[in-house]
Specification:
Helix content: 40-55%
Strand order of the largest sheet: 2-1-5-4-3
Strand content: 25-35%
Distance between the termini: 108 Å
CATH class of the largest domain: Alpha Beta
Order of helices and strands: HEEHHEEEHEEHHHEEEHHEHEEHEEHEE
CATH superfamily of the largest domain: Histidine kinase-like ATPase, C-terminal domain
Structural class: alpha+beta
Number of strands: 17
Number of domains: 4
Largest sheet: 5 strands, antiparallel
Mean pLDDT: 82
Length: about 500
């Protein structure tokens, strides 16, 4: 076995890149420094023994001589002690270091071997990380959004302070628990399906769920989630969430308001149609009365021949049935029903509305023309409400033309396709819209009728918007107005006619 001598050991220490300074264990004076230490501090080997603490140490209070002596004393008594120390080079440059003092027993005396390395870059990086962490913590503290990390097993690995506030739970109550344990319906299957690591770019997706917070109340959350896979840390899902309970409640109130508006729309239609069909009903009722009175007279005059009496009663029954059908048609249209969207041909809705529109036209002596697309126009809608829109616009047009010359009393109803949408247009030859009124024609307070409240067109806009459609009005040349609305065609529809808009 090779035997190391003192000279061998000295040469190895001298060759080390680690900076080493030897101090006397008793006096703490410097005895020697290796080449790496001499290069770092800029002092020669001859200069080192004469150096004192102030000569090679930062002047900052935390590095005063008494602190350094206590550190070396601790190393001398315990065998080793570590300190953060700031050396100052001969040229004045300061070197923030991690210094380890170790007591070494030599043949002739005990020494303290101080090994130090420059940690300036490390400390700067640590300070920057602490500053970034402090900023993030400060920024996230008052965020309306919370951050939570759910691992692949569904357990919470991390939650932000804002997340704790939104969940109304302490961090210790959240981390390590199953996230789905608070949710009304499991969310983890959705995360696995939509935020899989197999998806390109780990695309984020949105999810809405309802969960129980610390107070026991259920709250609605809107979240954006994506898959994360941090090496040697966590593999799972990053979820950025916020409380939308008030928004969900507002949406529920809005849906209820829309249902009430639709209810009013149906009964608004009933009022409009009641006046129109009053004359239509009076005819069969008057005729049935005449037939019954005639049958009564024949019965009083001639009891032996029942044929005339039977004929009169049969005719009266037919007239009463006719009146009953008229009343039934109106009642079925406006009765309050919980409607649901169905797939239906928009042309069929127009045809179903024609009976009532024709009655209104006949009463005002307005001619009506149909120009329906020859292809089916399948849309998803509540047919009663869309029919109400068609009738409301048509009734307004008829009333507008009722006071004009007979040559101007013409109504045309058209259906066609426009790109991926089905369109209904109702054209009249009325006086048109003043320019100032075009922007507010569908406002709830606009009306072109004397004493009108404007609710009809506002209802039309509400109904069409709810069905993902658009509604508008424009003047025609040389006179008249076109009211039109469009609804999305259902997928798979073949394009119908390509007639240009009038």
């Amino acid at each position: 076995m090779y035997q190391f001598g003192k000279d061998d050991f000295f040469r190895m220490v001298e060759a080390l890149t680690l900076r080493i300074i030897l101090h006397d264990a008793e006096t703490k004076s410097i005895l020697w420094a290796n080449q790496a230490a001499r290069d770092a501090l800029g002092f020669t080997l001859e200069e080192f023994p004469a150096l004192k603490a102030p000569d090679m140490t930062s002047s900052a209070e935390k590095y005063r001589r008494e602190v350094g002596l206590r550190w070396l004393d601790e190393a001398a008594s315990t065998g080793q002690c570590t300190i953060e120390w700031c050396y100052r080079a001969k040229n004045g440059a300061e070197i923030l270091s991690e210094a380890i003092a170790t007591r070494v027993a030599l043949d002739n005396q005990d020494v303290l071997m101080v090994q130090f390395r420059d940690i300036s870059a490390e400390e700067a990086l640590k300070r920057e990380l602490r500053r970034v962490e402090s900023r993030l913590k400060e920024f996230m503290q008052d965020l309306a959004e919370g951050v939570i990390v759910v691992d692949s097993l569904g357990e919470v690995a991390y939650v932000s302070e804002s997340g704790c506030r939104i969940l109304e739970r302490a961090q210790a109550e959240i981390v390590g628990t199953r996230f789905d344990g608070w949710c009304e319906t499991p969310v983890l299957p959705l995360l696995r399906d939509h935020a899989s690591r197999d998806k390109p770019g780990h695309d984020a997706f949105s999810v809405r769920y309802r969960l129980r917070v610390g107070s026991g109340d259920y709250r609605w959350h809107q979240a954006t989630a994506r898959h994360i896979d941090i090496e040697d840390d966590v593999s799972g899902y990053l979820v950025l969430f916020r409380d939308i309970t008030k928004q969900v409640e507002a949406e529920s109130l809005e849906r209820e308001r829309e249902r009430q508006i639709e209810y009013l729309a149906r009964y608004n239609a009933m009022g409009e149609m009641a006046m129109t069909i009053a004359h239509e009903i009076s005819q069969p009722l008057s005729a049935s009365r005449n037939f019954i009175e005639g049958a009564s007279m024949r019965l009083a005059m001639n009891r032996d021949d029942p044929a005339p009496i039977s004929f009169g009663l049969q005719q009266a029954a037919r007239q009463i049935e006719h009146a009953s059908l008229i009343i039934k048609s109106m009642r079925e249209y406006v009765v309050k029903l919980e409607q649901a969207e169905t797939l239906i041909d928009l042309n069929a809705i127009v045809r179903d509305s024609l009976y009532f529109i024709s009655l209104k036209c006949a009463d005002a002596n307005v001619s009506m023309q149909l120009d329906l697309d020859t292809s089916a126009l399948p849309v998803s809608c509540e047919k009663v409400l869309i029919g109400q829109v068609i009738m409301n616009i048509a009734f307004n047009a008829i009333e507008e033309m009722s006071a004009l010359d007979e040559g101007r009393r013409s109504l045309r109803i058209e259906t066609r396709t426009s790109g991926e949408r089905a369109l209904v247009a109702i054209h009249d030859l009325g006086r048109g819209l003043p320019h100032a009124d075009r922007e507010r024609i569908f406002d709830g307070f606009f009306s072109g009728k004397p004493g009108g409240n404007g609710i009809g067109l506002a209802l039309c806009k509400s109904i069409v918007s709810r069905h993902r459609g658009d509604i508008w009005a424009q003047n025609r040349e040389p006179f008249g107005t076109t009211f039109a609305f469009s609804l999305p065609l259902c997928q798979g529809h073949g394009q119908g006619s390509n007639r240009a808009a009038p």
